[in-house]
Design goal:
The structure holds 2 protein chains of 2 kinds. By secondary structure, chain A is an alpha/beta fold. Chain A contains 8 helices and 11 strands. In chain B, the strands form 3 sheets. Chain B has a 9-stranded mixed beta sheet, with helices on both faces. The chains are: A alpha/beta, B alpha+beta.
Chain lengths: ~210, ~375
């Protein structure tokens, strides 16, 4: 028996791109194009139910089972380490997790490095693996500002094209890891809806 | 199919007890506290490192039990020993200390096919006591560690590989294999092993074909023998093969398994063969067991969850006590839960509102 598959997508450009891929693979849900304030979109025929959530919340919705599957950036998976299946690298939304600092500035490794970031867990494990002591300054946006105001020595953030860094006289010091969008599944859902989720994965595999 | 769901701990515990007692498992009762040293020595056996500790009257450092298995193993003297327990354990969950009711079963002693089969079928029975819509996933640490032997990864990368296998992360497994120069054939086999999923009868041939050395061959043979036995006793239903179920190799060495209930986001049952733990504790025997996490079942949807009570019965202060009691009992007799009071408690949700007066019972609201 086929059941409804709940899909959590990240709000924003990546999510829209992903939805278009899903639509082209036979998982369309026309009502999603209607300009409304609804949060949940359902298609009885294709047996899919979409909801848009904050990108960093996709992993939570999937881990808790509110969504059976979802699409989320690897950065979020590394930061929150949710207990989920990571079924596919979609190869879109590519960027890099980088350490960046002021252009040409001296690298202070003789004292505790102050690191401004939205990703404290990633930053901490990166510096710990190198045996360096850091102080994390957790910010929620405009990370680039921190080194300019001398609040931090460096930042750990996502770099897509590098334009924002350049415009603020910052440069990439180190690349931590490559990031791309992943197709993930709740562990329990995967077991009870195996055939449907595998089918979705295989269709996606053909598309990316 | 019986779709009834037993979600309440009060109802489930007696059901589980009788399942275990029928097979001769004895109840094991223990103290709430344990010496902290026990957990310090076996830190990685526990899922969380946070333990509530305190000093007892002599200044010894004690801990509120985060786990029951370690205490049972420590205190086990004569083997074979078949025990079960219903105990509260104290663990960190979602960033807070929680008291979690755990029911579990342990067998300590030499393990033969009968024992394996008995423990797995008791695990399946425990799940079906909750709900018929369950899945029991079986994995084998011998099979996985056979692969790790062949991959020849440095120790630090072994843990990473186990983590990737548990996420069925084909992409990153390939990446890690490439990083350490693993040849393509073995890489593909590792990916197939991690992503393999399905009923045992369908997946066992694939599993046997994936075998890479004597260790994996032995493990596959054990899985095959177990499946044959389970099928012969009619217990193979809902049992799947899944190597993404992994555990710490320094404690677990054979069959491991996890149970899932449709509608619950995580596993509700987890267990395995942990002979390595016993060797570590200097005991020359083997052991297998599992625990059921009753706290996971709390949020299962129940049919009668929409109402606090079936009947709200209002009565006047001068009502006749005997006649009122008779009326309540009559309603109970019809299978209703009844809350009798002179006023309606705030926010109470009831199916039916009745009034008791000198004429008897009158329906005020709801008459389905």
């Amino acid at each position: 028996m086929k059941e409804m598959i709940n899909i959590a997508l990240p709000k924003g450009r990546l999510g829209e791109k992903v939805y278009n891929i899903f639509e082209s693979l036979g998982y369309g849900c026309p009502s999603i194009h209607e300009n409304s304030r609804k949060l949940i979109f359902e298609d009885e025929k294709n047996l899919v139910r979409y909801f848009w959530v904050k990108p960093s919340d996709v992993a939570i919705y999937v881990e808790k089972g509110a969504a059976d599957v979802g699409v989320v950036g690897k950065d979020i998976l590394l930061e929150y380490e949710p207990d989920i299946y990571e079924l596919l690298d979609l190869g879109i939304g590519k960027c890099r997790m980088c350490v960046a600092g002021e252009k040409g500035a001296r690298r202070h490794e003789d004292r505790t490095i102050r690191v401004a970031t939205k990703f404290p867990h990633i930053a901490l494990s990166y510096y710990q693996s190198r045996g360096l002591d850091i102080e994390i300054i957790k910010l929620n946006g405009s990370i680039e500002l921190a080194p300019l105001l001398r609040m931090s020595d460096v930042i750990v953030d996502i770099v897509e094209t590098g334009t924002t860094l350049k415009e603020n006289n910052l440069e990439v010091i180190d690349e931590i890891v490559n990031i791309s969008a992943r197709f993930i599944s709740n562990k329990s859902s995967f077991k009870f809806k195996t055939a449907q989720i595998n089918e979705m994965k295989n269709r996606l595999l053909g598309a990316v | 199919m019986n779709n009834e769901i037993t979600y309440s701990q009060e109802l489930l515990i007696p059901k589980l007890r009788s399942i275990y007692e029928q097979r001769g498992y004895k109840k094991y009762k223990m103290s709430k506290f344990e010496e902290y040293d026990l957990y310090l020595e076996n830190k990685s056996f526990l899922k969380s490192e946070n333990i509530i500790t305190f000093n007892d009257l002599n200044g010894r450092l004690l801990a509120l039990k985060p786990d029951v298995t370690l205490s049972i193993v420590k205190n086990s003297a004569a083997t074979p020993q078949k025990v079960y327990y219903t105990e509260n354990v104290y663990r960190v969950k979602s960033g807070q200390y929680k008291e979690i009711m755990q029911v579990g079963l342990e067998y300590i002693g030499k393990i033969d096919m009968y024992t394996l089969c008995e423990v797995i079928s008791l695990a399946a029975d425990s799940l079906s006591a909750v709900c018929e819509n369950y899945i029991l996933d079986i994995s084998h640490m011998g099979f996985i560690s056979g692969f790790l032997d062949e991959l020849k990864l440095p120790a630090s990368a072994c843990d990473e590989m186990l983590e990737l296998i548990s996420r069925k992360d084909a992409h990153e497994i390939k990446g890690l294999c490439e990083k350490y120069g693993v040849d393509r054939e073995l890489t593909e086999k590792t990916v197939s092993m991690a992503t393999l999923y399905g009923s045992m009868d369908k997946m066992l041939p694939a599993c046997e074909a994936l075998s890479v050395n004597q260790k994996t061959k032995d493990a596959a043979a054990e899985l095959r023998a177990l499946y044959t036995a389970l099928a012969a006793i009619g217990c193979e239903k809902n049992i799947n093969l899944d190597f993404s179920i992994t555990s710490d190799l320094s404690y677990y060495n054979g069959i491991i398994f996890q149970g899932f209930i449709n509608g619950v986001s995580g596993s509700v049952l987890s267990g395995g063969r942990y002979g390595n733990l016993l060797s570590k504790m200097g005991k020359h025997t083997d052991a297998i067991g599992f625990a059921v996490y009753l706290d996971m079942l709390e949020y299962l949807e129940s049919g009668d969850g929409d109402y606090d009570v079936d009947v709200m019965l209002l009565y006047g202060e001068s009502s006749d006590t005997v006649a009122l009691t008779k009326a309540v009992k009559m309603l109970n007799g019809n299978g209703n839960t009844v809350l009798a009071s002179t006023e309606i408690p705030q926010r109470l949700r009831y199916k039916q509102l009745l009034q008791f007066n000198e004429r008897g019972l009158e329906i005020i609201e709801g008459n389905d």
